[in-house]
Amino acid sequence: MSSVKFDGHRIDVLFSEDQIAERLKGLAAEIAAWAPKRLLVVPVLKGSFIFAADLLRAMHHAGLSPEVDFMILSSYRAAMKSSGKVEVLRDIDSEIQGRDVLLVDDILESGRTLAYAKDLLAARGAGTVRSAVLLYKPGHLAASIKADHCAFECPDLFVVGYGMDMGHQFRELPFVGHVVKEG
Ligand code: IMP
Ligand code: MG
User: Fold this and answer.
1) What's the whole-model pTM score?
2) Above 60 in pLDDT, residue 30?
């Protein structure tokens, strides 16, 4: 396994830049095979921004021409674990009545964030609401949702890079990695 070193941290590469690029072609082909109608892609920010940007370009190469709008959700995972409350910090502006929607998120873990977003858009009259996630971490599902399109199953480790952060750090890394504290 390759790894990189930054001030006091070692980051082991879990999914490389090349692996991700190759997998996204397959994911885009799956989404194209769905043949969505008037597709709106909704990246759930912030963690999904690089994944969404690359997936959208792969979708273009797969023959799709979606519109894109953004949502920022915040979930109080640690502080309010029992309620699993999700708050909309930024909502989409787009009209979604009758349209197919693809939610894009970085990680599906408890599923609360995606389940909340999916229910919200469905309640507004969207057609079919599907989800695409970069990573699925098995064993933590609290909401009854599964990702329709998932790039990789992820080991139960805290991961960073490719848009995902640890205290606002490491989003710029072109790969998905696991931070190892070096003593
Ligand atoms: P959940 O599915 O509602 O539990 O939300 C999963 C969200 O938690 C993801 O979208 C990430 O924002 C965050 N998250 C979970 N695990 C990790 C991790 O290993 N690194 C960075 N963020 C994570
Ligand atoms: Mg997230």
Assistant:
1) 0.94
2) yes
